[in-house]
Amino acid sequence: MKAVLGNMRAELVGAGGVVERNAYLTKRYIWWDVAWFVWTVANTLTIVFIAKGIEATGGSLDVNETMTTLLIGAVVWAYLGILFEFLMETVAWERWEGTIEYTFMAPLSRAMHLAGQGVFAIAYGLVRAIFLFCVCAFVFFSLSIPDAKYFPAFVVLVVASISFIGIGMMMSVLPLISPEKGTQLGFVAQGTLLVVSGVYYPVSVLPEWMQWIAKVSPATYALDGIRKAILEGQGLSALWSDLWPLLLIGFVSIPLGLWVFQRGEQYAKRHGKLKRSG
Amino acid sequence: MTNIQQAAIEALPRRTAPAVDVRDLSKEFRRRDRKLGRFAHRKRVALDGVSFTMQRGETVAILGQNGSGKSTLVRLLSTLLLPDGGSAEIFGHDVVRDARAVRRLVNRVSVEASFFKKMSSSENLGYASRYYGMTSRQTRDLIPQILGRVGFPPDRRDEPMESLSRGMQQKVALARALLTSPVVLLLDEPTTGLDPRSKLEVQEFIREIRSSHDSTILLCTHDLAEAETLAERVGILDRGQLLAVEPADALRRRFGATTLEEAFFAATGRAFEADDEEDDEDREVFA
Prior knowledge:
The structure holds two protein chains of two kinds. Helix content of chain A is 79%, strand content 0%. By secondary structure, chain A is mostly helical. A six-stranded mixed β-sheet of chain B has the order 6-7-8-3-9-10, with helices on both faces. Chain B has a four-stranded antiparallel β-sheet with strand order 2-1-4-5. Chain B has a single domain, classed as Rossmann fold (3-Layer(aba) Sandwich), CATH 3.40.50.300. By secondary structure, chain B is of the alpha/beta class. Chains A and B meet through α1, α4 and α11 of A and α3, β6 and α4 of B.
């Protein structure tokens, strides 16, 4: 029992080490992050302005509501991008610096290694997402969302993160298989996940086969839940219909993601792909 | 000896097991070769039936040219590669089946001192030690102490690694390995590319580890003098085959040579510094 507790403690300390490392790196690259944030704001603005553009060209719509709907889609897109980026960096950045072999030969379980990476990604991503939402909603557009319930929206995003991390684990194996092109494939996964999930439109406008895929995408429930909380002012109990599928998908995707990553690690070890030169 | 190392040694499962036991270990790599056909692959043998044992506290040097398989051997023992055949055990723990136990006992210094370059030496050592279960309270005093022991200037601990010389970086790499109190230390060309002064300092530190720690050291090098002065036994690895592992004197006598270089030539049929065959260049990529 003492040994088990000692082992668990060592694992938690190890996961803390991953968080600590990412905190150091974020501190060292903070101005690059600021520059990246400016790009994210610009990208979000181009999307949200679409609502104003439609109105200006004679379209009939509730501009405030449409802008908020688009803004939520853009913020979730950016958030998912941050999570995937951090998880993909588990392999890609470490390989570039040459530290990957030292990380993979440490006695830290892969589950806790990826958990540490995921925890930091969620914390950092949430800060960025909240900041992005506030800058766009209140500084640029002065949106009026009096019914908004922010805490339930926050809970939905946190719960959705579990599933996103599971999918991110599967994606982070790609740089192990292809050091040159694997990272870019993460963007493909991010785009594919959101396009079927109604990122800027209702899922009902999609072809039927895409709607079927939307049913197993966690982003569908995340977007739906957050919009209900922000636009309709729904509380946590009303959002249960979005929360339980998110919990279920998370329950499946985390072990699946870990399994896929471990298979990728075995492949890399068999073919000598952990080396810096690949 | 630190408490962590003491605990690791006490936890060793079989007190009688050799520190390192390698039996018939083999590894080959495949690479796509379009000259041979669109989907054709070329195979290169990196290790071919390598067998040797090391006793606890022993230092063994493996001599070999670039591409001889030294780094592949170190990676296999570090659980970073999976062997195609044979077995390797560290204190009775198989490197494949019991990889996590092996990782607790082993650490490694390679030719490239790989760090997050924007982070300082203290930060790099700090997060790396957490992976071994060491808390910040445990390493607060230990990191400056170990950096001091490898001769790293205290006033440069907070500088980013990218502003340090290669010699300095290699000292930090040694400190990183030592921080986790490894029972088996794998040194893969730790002095290659260092200036003469840094090289001597690193070699001196390896001597100190030998005398003050209960560590077993496998030193892969292509520096003949380094092998002879630091190791009790010297092995010759050529094109993936381990031709001999003996004390330097015995090696010279066996091949009727007066120097290790001559012994290497007699054993392999090739001059030590020669990388004159196309096959060798190819082998370097893999091994």
